[in-house]
Write a structure and sequence with these properties.
Blueprint: E1 5-8, E2 13-15, H1 27-31, E3 34-42, E4 46-47, H2 50-63, H3 72-86, E5 91-98, E6 115-122, H4 128-133, E7 135-141, H5 144-147, H6 160-171, E8 176-180, E9 186-189, E10 193-198, E11 201-205, H7 215-226, E12 232-234, H8 238-242, E13 246-251, E14 255-262, E15 265-266, H9 274-288
Parallel strand pairs: 7-8, 7-14, 11-12
Antiparallel strand pairs: 1-2, 1-6, 3-4, 3-5, 5-6, 8-9, 10-11, 10-13, 13-14, 14-15
The structure holds pyridoxal-5'-phosphate (PLP).
Pyridoxal-5'-phosphate binds at residues 38, 162, 188, 191-193, 212, 214-217, 250-252.
C-alpha cells in the first residue's frame, strides 16, 4: 500500500494529510517566512543526495537568519520515519521549516519555535512520453535577480516570482518557463536548472546570474565530466539559447528533462539530442546505484 504521510513538529507525530494542520498564525503561512527542500528517494527509500539537501537547507536557514531547530542527522531520521509510515516503495519528500507561529507582525522575534513539516507522498515521475517528447518552454523576463530582495540562491517559501513566471509560460501555451534576468541572462527554470549544448559545448548558467545552485545541476555536472562532456558555467543569453542544438532542465524530482521548443521554435531538430540522451542514461544509472 502506498500513501501520503505528514510529520508535523507541533503535533510531534506522523499523521494522515487530513490531520496535518498548522496554525494560521504560522509565519510560513503569514509571510512565506520559511525554507524548504524537495527530494526523492531511490533504492527503497533512501533520499537521493540527502546530505547535500540538508547542507543547502542549513545555508538557506543562514540566509534568512534562522537556526535549524534540529541537527541535520535528526532531520534525516524524521524523513526516514515519515517515508517508512507511507508504505511507498519510493517517495517524493518535501521538508519545510517555518519560523513558527506568533502574533501578527513582521518582527521575527515574535515566533515561539520553528515549525517542521515533512510530506512524503508516492513518487510520481513524469511519463516516459514526456521525457521522449520534451517540454515546450517560454522565456519569461523576471527581475528576480536584479531587482528582487530575496537571494535566488537560497530556497525560501517565497516562490511568487516563479509562480507568476510559470503562469505566464502556461498562458502562452508552454509547459514551463525559462527565467531571464534584468541583465538579460537566462538563469534557470521555474523549479529547475538549465543546461544547453551551444556550439558543441555543454554549458549551464553561472551562479552569478542569480539562481538556485541545484543539487541535480551539481550531480549532472559530475556525471557529464565522467562521460566526457564536461559542463562549463557560462553567461547564457536568449540569442545563444536560440542557437543551441540541445537544451534540458534538471531537478531532484524530474531528473533530466529535455526541452524541445523555446518560444514556439524547435530546439535543434525538435527531438531529444544525443548529449541529453547519454546524460539521461548515466543519470538513471546513478539513481539505480542507490539500490
Ligand atoms: C528555482 C529552482 N531552481 C532549481 C531547482 C533545482 O534544484 P534541485 O536540483 O536541487 O532540485 C529548483 C528545485 O526545486 C528550483 O526551485
Amino acid at each position: 500500500m502506498s500513501s501520503t504521510k505528514v510529520y508535523v513538529s507541533t503535533l510531534d507525530a506522523v499523521v494522515d494529510p487530513a490531520d496535518a494542520k498548522v496554525s494560521v498564525f504560522d509565519r510560513g503561512f503569514l509571510y512565506g517566512d520559511s525554507i524548504y527542500e524537495t527530494m526523492r528517494t531511490a533504492g527503497g527509500g533512501r533520499p537521493v543526495e540527502l546530505e547535500r539537501h540538508l547542507q543547502r537547507l542549513t545555508r538557506s536557514g543562514e540566509g534568512i537568519f534562522m537556526d535549524l531547530p534540529l541537527t541535520t542527522d535528526a532531520l534525516g531520521e524524521l524523513i526516514a520515519r515519515t517515508h517508512a509510515a507511507t508504505g511507498n516503495d519510493e517517495s517524493y519528500v518535501r521538508l519545510m521549516i517555518t519560523r513558527g507561529a506568533g502574533p501578527i507582525g513582521l518582527d521575527p522575534r515574535k515566533s515561539d519555535a520553528p515549525t517542521i513539516v515533512i510530506v512524503a507522498q508516492p513518487l510520481a515521475l513524469p511519463s516516459e512520453e514526456t521525457y521522449r517528447r520534451g517540454l515546450r518552454t517560454v522565456l519569461v523576463h523576471v527581475d528576480k535577480a536584479g531587482g528582487g530582495l530575496i537571494d535566488p540562491g537560497i530556497k525560501t517559501g517565497n516562490y511568487l516570482s516563479n509562480i507568476i513566471a510559470l503562469r505566464e509560460a502556461i498562458a502562452k501555451g508552454g509547459d514551463d518557463a525559462l527565467l531571464v534576468t534584468s541583465a538579460g541572462e537566462v538563469a534557470e527554470g521555474a523549479t529547475s536548472n538549465v543546461f544547453a549544448v551551444i556550439e558543441g559545448e555543454l554549458c549551464t548558467p553561472h551562479l552569478r546570474a542569480g539562481l538556485l545552485a541545484g543539487i541535480t545541476r551539481q550531480v549532472v555536472r559530475e556525471l557529464a565530466a565522467d562521460i566526457g562532456h564536461p559542463a562549463k558555467e557560462c553567461v547564457v543569453r536568449p540569442q545563444a539559447l536560440a542557437s543551441a542544438s540541445e537544451v534540458f532542465l534538471t531537478s531532484s524530482v524530474r531528473g533530466i528533462m529535455p526541452v524541445t521548443a523555446i518560444d514556439g521554435t524547435s530546439v535543434g531538430a525538435g527531438e531529444v539530442g544525443p548529449v541529453t540522451t547519454a546524460l539521461r542514461a548515466r543519470y538513471e544509472a546513478y539513481i539505480a546505484s542507490y539500490g
